Amino acid sequence: MSAHTWLIVALVIYFTAMIAIGVYAAVKTKDHEDYMLGGRNLPPAVAALSAGASDMSGWLVMGLPGAIYAAGLIEAWIAIGLTIGAYLNWRFVAPRLRAYTEIARNSITIPSFFENRLRDRSRLLRIVSAIVILVFFTLYVSSGMVAGGVFFESAFGGDYLVGMLLVGGVTLAYTLFGGFLGASFTDFVQGIMILAAVLIVPVMAVLALGGLGDVGAAVDPAHLSLLGGDGLTGVTILAIVSSLAWGLGYFGQPHIIVRFMALRSAEEAKTARRIGMGWMILSLMGAVAAGFVGIAFFADDGLENPETVILEMAQLLMHPLVAGLVLSAVLAAIMSTISSQLIVCSSALVEDVFKVVAKREPSQRLLALLGRACVLIVALVAILLALNPDSTILDLVGFAWAGFGAAFGPIILLSLFWRRLTAVGALSGMIVGAATVFLWPLLGTGLYEIVPGFALNLLVASAVSRMTYRLDEEVEDEFTRTGAIVTQGTPKP
Predict the structure, then answer these.
(1) pLDDT at residue 429 in the model
(2) Torsion angle of the four alpha carbons 150, 151, 157, 161, in this order, in degrees rounded to the nearest 10
(3) Are 454 and 410 in contact (CB under 8 A)?
(4) pTM of this prediction?
């Protein structure tokens, strides 16, 4: 068979495996809580790799290696910031959020947790949170589908529309039927594929070149500096601060922290943290190494598109079937993020909009059907937006990351670690944080908007809460019980 045929075979194998996992997850999904949160029964390894895969998207396999190839180690500051943020998220947020969301009336979404934790009887906090999720994630999902279509077009020589519909359709299929479990199990497999791709490809390239000496000789010394070729300047400091600030976003990303809520227990967050951070550090090191090795590998001809450095090396060094699986790993990175975001959008529509306006408690069967219908609706809207690749701005990924980080991050931290947070304070801070993300770029400072957005949210939420706090014995008791579970473990029945 031709190399192109082998690539298509690899793609068919990958898509078939994802749909099969989705069918398996559908069998395991019994009710609405299973569909939205996996019945809070996610093993640590699945939670860890699922969170990592849904987080990194195509940036890990294409964006980061391409940036290192083009500009050197100065581009690694984002990876450093993300690593620090992910560790702090797993270390402090994961166990407490897992315990608190169950104690706070078994909240299965972030907006419902805000409402239950803060006893917001107006329900405004829950609805505003759901609207923020729907607006950002519908466009975020569309961006992912555009990325999938463009990648399919460039890597497999196919048509953009066919590729976009194929990526969107397969992702929709296993998410629609498998729900949260389908997204998590496929993310687990996709996480393994991503890790294998970013580790194996640079190792094979080094061996093909004859050793690390040849790689070192081809790399410009300026590329090896974390400060870049210009050294420490005001612009460099601003760029480094903005890159590190990406780590702040982790505390407010619904599609990531929902994995914490789905763990079997708060105690298993430690195991999940070790697995997740191990996966993340190895993956980032592999991606950075691939960028550097690519400089030596393509020293003679260069690359027209630096972001294809791993893909090009894979196709030159591996059997076409194996190279096809590496290319599928890029689709895996894109699809894992899309599936996780679809589930969060569905939960926002069903749990935080429909159940709020419904006059009576719907049945579990109706909720499960509505959950699947909402996944379908959001996916179809995203596909319509992605029909024209120019209609969706892929830079929105960074904007949405800042939006969620600034709107939700401080409220998550305050709700978990500060007794005196109030619903009015949380809502005020959330609105200020989100508004700052929209308005800050107009000032042209060059500072990533998550920094002022996060800080102002924290300041406003704290100040307003101090003015509006009223003692509630039930809320105090829940806060205390959560702390006891995290420090002493779940009490035996």
Answers:
(1) 97
(2) -40
(3) yes
(4) 0.90
